[in-house]
Amino acid sequence: MGRMMRPFVTAKVRSGVSAARAALAGGAAALALGAIHPASAQTALPKTIEEGLKLEAEQALPITPFYTDAAPADAPSWPGGLIRAEKVTDYAIPAGMTAWRILYHSLDAERHDVVTSAFVLLPAGPVPAGGWPTVAWAHGTSGVAQPCAPSLMKDLYYGDEGLFDFPKAGLAVVATDYHGEGTPGAHQYMNKLAQGYDVIYSVAAAHAALPGVLSKQWVADGHSQGGMASWSVGEMEQQMNNPDYLGTVSVSGTVDMLDFIAPKPEEVGAPFYFPMVAYGLKARYPDFDVKTVLTKQGYEHYPLIATKACWFTGYAAYLGKSSAQIMKPNWTKVPAVQAMLKEDIMGEKPVKGPLMVLTGGGDVSVPPGGVKKTAHKACKNGIKLFFHLYPGLDHDPTMINSTQDQIAWIKDRFAGKPFEENCNTL
């Protein structure tokens, strides 16, 4: 990288919904390790479904015809084709920034046409020559139902978890919702192909919506679910051989799916994600029956999560439940699960451009061991990458406290600086 990584060890403390997001460890660690986050953040997490729904409603924007109306007859229908765009004024964004909402064509895991939504954040000030340097952002788990799209949230879900820092630093953000979030249809949760396509084609659609405003060159960046998506983009771009793609940042990525969905006991894990994984399996494999993997307790709140509830409600619905209470024994042996694990393998295919892989040493949602193991595998397969572990940081705090390192690394890519890998340290 050419610079030392700052050894962040504490999370920012915020209030309300943002504090609850920052206390992601509460989703798992509060169950197994006790209250390890500041009280102000810990108390922000919902304890009941009603509290979860209330928190979500406070940030929710209505699903308007923008998301649901049929495409105009003259709209392009190819992947990346723009269906419609609108300037947005109802987001809680820093003064000076400009926001747009776009709707576009993408592909699902089997390359079927799907309609996907996204938002675009532009920095303050005049557009520079060549357009704003562009970051295609892939968000972490927000839920699986249609209302769970970040573009349908006033704070854009990751607003002050680092996302606003990108435009503040002069970087435009193109942020897909992933299809099925915002738009009608099923969200293929935790599928690297589906999420990768949504990220890639959001860039083409944003260029169509805002000609001359965005740079041709771009970088992919993502956290958690999005950390797998951004790494997948690097694989796809290697095959597409896109000369304008400059590299990938993967933060706390679910790049070792088995370690995410069936972690070792000492890794803690976050069982409330499991019903969402079951939903993603159903979306990817329509003949799959979620009751083959979910226990009665596991299925109890599944219909709510599958239709209208998002992350907070999912957390509250399964608060205090272990994976053994939610998932049936040997559920990872189910053929659909095995197919998903095979399709989501990371670290074997070459990636285009430099790759930055970040993880937190205290992450109990996406265990750092699986991330490091995947990075090591990638290095052995000839994939050059820069890896860094932030000691002690949990899942969302890793995103928050690594943002400036991400931005500096991304700016180096746009500046054409040499990439320094450190595979020899893994």
From TrEMBL:
Instruction: Could you list this entry's UniProt keywords, alphabetically sorted.
Output: Signal
Q: Which GO terms describe its biological process?
A: lipid catabolic process
Q: Which InterPro entries match?
A: AB_hydrolase_fold, Lipase_secreted
Pfam assignment, any one: LIP
Q: Transmembrane stretches, by residue range? A: none
Which one of the record's GO molecular function terms can you name? triacylglycerol lipase activity
Tell me the domain of life. Answer: Bacteria
Q: Which residues form the signal peptide?
A: 1-41
Which PANTHER family does this one have?
LIPASE 5 (PTHR34853:SF1), PTHR34853
What is the name of this protein? Lipase
